[in-house]
Each structure stands twice: as structure tokens, then as C-alpha cells.
Amino acid sequence: MKNRRLGRNGPLVSAIGLGCMGMSEFYVADRDERESIATVHRALELGLNLLDTADAYGPHSNEELLGKALAGRREQAFLASKFGLLRDPQDPQRRGVSGRPEYVRQSIEGSLKRLNTDYLDLYYQHRIDPEVPIEETIGAMAELVQQGKVRYLGLSEVAPETLERAHRVHPISAVQSEYSLWTRDPEENGVLATCRQLGIAFVPYSPLGRGFLTGTLKSPEDFAADDYRRFSPRFQGDNFAKNLQLVSQVEQLAADKGVLASQLALAWVLAQGEDLLPIPGTKRRSYLEQNVAALDVQLSAAEIATLDAIFPPQAAAGERYAAESMAMLTR
Ligand SMILES: NC(=O)c1ccc[n+]([C@@H]2O[C@H](COP(=O)([O-])OP(=O)(O)OC[C@H]3O[C@@H](n4cnc5c(N)ncnc54)[C@H](OP(=O)(O)O)[C@@H]3O)[C@@H](O)[C@H]2O)c1
User: Fold this and answer.
1) pLDDT tens track for 262-289
2) Peptide bond preceding 101: is omega within 30 degrees of 0, i.e. cis?
3) What local confidence, expressed as pLDDT, does residue 288 receive?
4) With a 6 A CB cut-off, is 205 part of the ligand 1 pocket?
5) Does residue 211 have its Cβ closer than 6 Å to ligand 1?
6) Residue 325 and residue 276: Cα distance in Å, rounded?
């Protein structure tokens, strides 16, 4: 397994991680706990140790599943979880936030219990709470480091100025934001540049465009009624059709090169810099193995330029989240 550093002076972790979210929620097709657990075990066997979950996934059941999968194997993993994105049991699409210090202290206890461990390697604030100064939230997270409950701190979908303020309170090791061929916001909003300036690792989530960039999704009607993607503008109606035209060009390029579209999409992310640690999500061993093999796909400058030309910033039709969730980004 190729390794990369979690930030300029951070520990070595696998260059590609495993997003575990879809094992419990959002991507409905073929969910199967046994295959999910086998996928986590196969990842560890391959030396892929960067595992990503959050208390909000399920909610809670994804951490429980990982807790089960990691029984007797905890030390092999570099385990990341998140707090601060609140779910509404009455409405799965609604989201709230909390960065209150007492909420941080309470959340870690729940995550440790469900994950069946006494420490997390990486703990992210999932979304910034505009009502609580970031210094207060990070102050509470830093106490968790002092208590040995957490090793490294991270933030997700944070704005550059907030990141700088946070980093002054306690070193931030990783920033996780959506980044892929069809979501190039971090290049444009200054987040990637700020991470580089401060020596912070950048962890692209949904690097396969929630499955779209693999070329295997052909119609929005194929999703189950409660699949998350039905609620994302990019996966709806005309937007889906327009985006499919772009992806078909990626598929063609992949076919010419003798690799999969998914591997091309991941190789493009990996080629953006040694400081990027993408975490493609899957609940199947077969996809996991294809995704790990993307580490061996070398792209020439000409191929990168072709991909950049297919998917320049803002090329995707439709926003990546519905309006309420869009408003919670980059704060
Ligand atoms: N911080 C945040 O706010 C945030 C938000 C979203 C996600 N995340 C994290 O990022 C992780 C990854 O993102 P994601 O899961 O949303 O999206 P993703 O990695 O872009 O795509 C996942 C989807 O692609 C499919 N897939 C994976 N590998 C494939 C392959 N080789 N061929 C064909 N299809 C393939 C998966 O199918 P199957 O499910 O059928 O395997 C799943 O439907 C999540 O698991 C989660 O841990 C974080």
C-alpha cells in the first residue's frame, strides 16, 4: 500500500482511505452488513488503514458497524469519526449543527462507545456552527487530545478564515471537503490553498461523485425511493442527463487507456498532490479492490489536461446538495 502523510508533520496513513458511510445509509442498493464488514477486513488486509465514519451516519449505526468490524483489529486502523451534524429522527433530510463545547464532550463518549474503542485517531467537526466561535469548539476538541481520547483534529467543509483561526488554537491535521472531477470548489474557495500554506492534509470526500463518475449510474429512476441521490439536484432530471454526457467522455478516455472510469476519477484526485488523501466509499470488496488499484494508474500531463477540459470548475449541472445543506458549507 502506498502511504501519504496526514499533514506536513503528521503520521503516515494509506494514500487512499475507505469511506464507510454508504454501508449504513444514503446509498441504498445491495446493503449487506456481512459484505460491509468483509470490505473493512479486506481493506485492512491490503494495508488500507484510513477508515472514515461519523456519528451522523445511520445515525449512529455506521459507527456501530465499524465497532463490530474492528473487534480485535483496532490497532490496524487509522480511525476517523465526526461530530456536530445533527439529525432529525422525524425527517432524514433535515440537518442541524452544534459546536458547543459540552456537545463536543458528550459526542466523543458516544462515538467511542459505539466504535468500541478508547481513542479515535482523527476527530472532525462535521459542519461549522455559526453560533459558536470556532475557538471554543476547538478548545473543547483540544481537551480530548490532552485526555488521550483523540490523536489528531480535523474540520469538514470549513472556510479558509475559520480554518486559520482554528489552527491557531490547536494544530489541525486534516480538512475533509467534497472534491472530485465534478466538485472543484476547494480549488476556487481557497480551502486547498490554505491547507497547503498551513501544512494540513486535504481529504477529498465523495471522490467518485457519489458513484456518478464511475459511469455505472445510468438513470435517476434506478435509485431506491430513499436513496440520498434522489434529493441531490445533480442527480435529478435534466441535470442528470447533462452530467451523463460529461461522464461518457471520461468513460471513453478510460476505455482508451484500459482502465475503469472510477480509476481515472480517483487517479485525477490523487494526481492533484501528495497532500491529498481521497476516501472513496464502498460497501463491496470488488469495488474496494478496483479503487485501491487506482493508486497504480499513472496519468500523463496530457491526460490530466483532457480530464480538466471535460470537467472544468462549475461544469456539473446542478448543485451538489439541496439548498438547506448548501447553506451549511464553507463557514
Ligand atoms: N464530510 C462530509 O460531509 C462527508 C459527506 C459525504 C461523504 N463523506 C465521507 O466520504 C466517503 C466517500 O464519499 P461517498 O461514499 O459519499 O461517495 P463516493 O466515494 O464518491 O462514491 C460512493 C459510491 O460509489 C460507488 N462505488 C464505489 N467504488 C466504485 C467502483 N469502483 N465502481 C462503481 N461504483 C463504485 C459506491 O457503490 P456501493 O455503495 O454500492 O459500494 C457508492 O454508491 C463517505 O463514505 C463518507 O465517509 C463525508
Assistant:
1) 999 999 999 999 999 999 999 999 999 9
2) no
3) 98
4) yes
5) yes
6) 24
